[in-house]
Amino acid sequence: MTKNELKPEMEKMVREILKAETILLFPHIHMDGDCLGSSAAFCRGLRSLGKICWVVIEDEIPANLEFLNGDICTQDLELIQEPDICMAVDCAEIQRFINRKDLFLKGKLTMCIDHHSTAVPFTTYNYIDPTAAATGELVYKFLLALGVTLDKAMGEALYAAITTDTGNFQYSNTTRETHEIVANLYDLGIEHSKVSVEIYQNIRLEKLLMFNRSLESLQMYADGRIAIVSLKQQDLDDTGATVDEAEGIVEAIRSIGSVEIAVILKELKDKKVKVSLRAKNNFNVAKFAARFGGGGHVKAAGFIMHEPIEHCGEIISHELMTELFQETL
Ligand SMILES: [Mn+2]
Questions:
Q1: Is the torsion defined by CA of 163, 1, 27, 158 positive or negative?
Q2: pTM value surpassing 0.90
Q3: CA 197 to ligand 1 center in whole angstroms
């Protein structure tokens, strides 16, 4: 959909939101800065309009994002029995709600605001704009369209959303519009440096030990263009880190000069393996992930495998090398 085609959809959604009394927001599991920051800003904005609004979550908020909470998140699935609107934020797959699915579907209306290019609409109303760097950009537009007077807390939540999904304004998804929106957030008096310290300079030693451990598994293929690391449950047990703290490893190995495609394989508790891919220049990891039933963005995507983690590495390295070979033909 182009931005022009999306406009009438936003207008319809704004009309419904203004009519609603109770609205629940649903970020995806394994929350990141964008889904939680976007949800937090939206929730505050909707409350400022007098709506009863909560962000419904089912897993723990990562420590470096805890500052976004402040009485907007709840794990109570009974809080509102029949919400007027249930809205998926930064999440276009109902599978990423797991325990909240039933509650989500109880919404008299369902909506989705997202920017994943692989999003498949599953709600009554959908605002999916893959050209947006972050869902935070979309939420910013919705808040303005709703007539919300933005404040510092909303601004900092949106800043958190945008800085994290743009790799701190380094990724190619970052646009002039991204900077224009952020410039407007500055006018709200946001303390961007404080937000960055909260998000980026707030890790536990255990995380660094786990980084170290996973780097020991680093394998390079195709003349160093492909880098793969794995993280086993044992590594987590030994270092005391959590799987959520693996965020950043795959970006770290992508930063190696020769690497075009970086992959991390994470062994989950149920023995499934979560595969996360990052591309540097031209390779489309969303397309690659879709072949394995996953999805994401052109340069950041993922999927789940049901093989022992050692096999996963072999399969993926083989498939990636085949694709790279075909590309250079
Ligand atoms: Mn996002």
A1: positive
A2: no
A3: 20
CA of 305 to the centre of ligand 1 (A): 22
Q: What angle do CA 287, 290, 228 make, to 5 degrees?
A: 75
Ligand 1 mean position, distance from CA 323 (Å): 27
Query: Which residues have C-beta within 8 Å of that of residue 260, sequence separation ≥ 6?
Result: 225, 226, 279, 280, 281, 282, 283, 324
CA distance linking residue 195 with residue 64, whole number of Å:
10
Domains of the chain: 3-200 (3.90.1640.10), 205-328 (3.10.310.30)
Cα gap 7→123, rounded to integer Å: 17
What confidence tens digit (pLDDT) does each residue in 274-327 have? 999 999 999 999 999 999 999 988 999 999 999 999 999 999 999 999 998 887
CA-nearest of 90, 182, 189 to 134 is: 90
**How do residues 168-218 score in pLDDT, each as one tens digit?**
999 999 999 999 999 999 999 999 999 999 999 999 999 999 999 999 999
CA 33 – ligand 1 centroid, Å: 8
Residue 265, beta-bridge partner list: 230, 275
Q: How many other β-carbons are positioned within 10 Å of the β-carbon of residue 137?
A: 26
Helices 135-145/152-165 angle, 10° precision: 150
The tens digit of pLDDT for each residue in 220-259 reads 999 999 999 999 999 999 999 998 889 899 999 999 999 9
Ligand 1 centroid from CA 218, angstroms: 27
Question: Ligand 1 centroid to 328 CA: how many Å?
Answer: 31
